[in-house]
Amino acid sequence: LHVEESGGGLVQPGGSLRLSCAASGFTLDDYAIGWFRQAPGKEREAVACMSSSDDSTYYTDSVKGRFTISRDNAKKTVYLEMPSLKPEDTAVYYCAADRLTTVQAMCTQAPSFLYDYWGGGTQVTVSS
């Protein structure tokens, strides 16, 4: 049972990427999902989160209006659309799933390594 991220890479400023977080061995229907990122020398921070119950979303201020989180429960996959990328978006991006955490708590409190599932991360580099 795990989640696995994919879709990272090297992109020029202004470019786009779509990250995927695929669940294996379980379904995402009952889980709040979060995308997090960690840049070198910095703490891991929440980027975007989505609830399990009503698909409500929460975004950190630095990506609000740019990134979009979505989920396809049939495919057991959560996506993060990232257009208009900036060099400061460079980081390792992780997804996490948790059954008990609310979407607001997941995206406003310090990331908990007690969440049910964490992926191993995918590197996003924005550079010319």
Q: What tags apply to this protein structure?
A:
single chain; 1 helix; mainly beta
The average pLDDT score comes to: 94
Report the sheet with the most strands, covering strand number, pairing sense and barrel closure.
Answer: 7 strands, mixed
Number of helices: 1
Q: Return the string of H and E elements.
A: EEEEEEEEEHEE
Low-confidence stretches: none
- Straight-line N-to-C gap: 38 Å
| Alpha-beta content class | mainly beta
Shape: globular
Q: Report the helical percentage.
A: under 10%
* Rg: 13 Å
Can you tell me about this structure?
With 128 residues, this protein is mostly beta strands. It contains one helix and eleven strands; from the N terminus they run βββββββββαββ. It has one helix at 103-108, and strands at 2-6, 9-11, 17-24, 32-38, 45-50, 57-59, 68-72, 77-82, 91-98, 117-118, 122-126. The strands form two sheets. Strands 2, 4, 5, 6, 9, 10 and 11 form a seven-stranded mixed sheet that branches. The protein has a four-stranded antiparallel sheet with strand order 1-3-8-7, with no helix packed on it. Strand 5 and strand 6 form a beta hairpin. The termini are far apart. The relative contact order is 0.31.
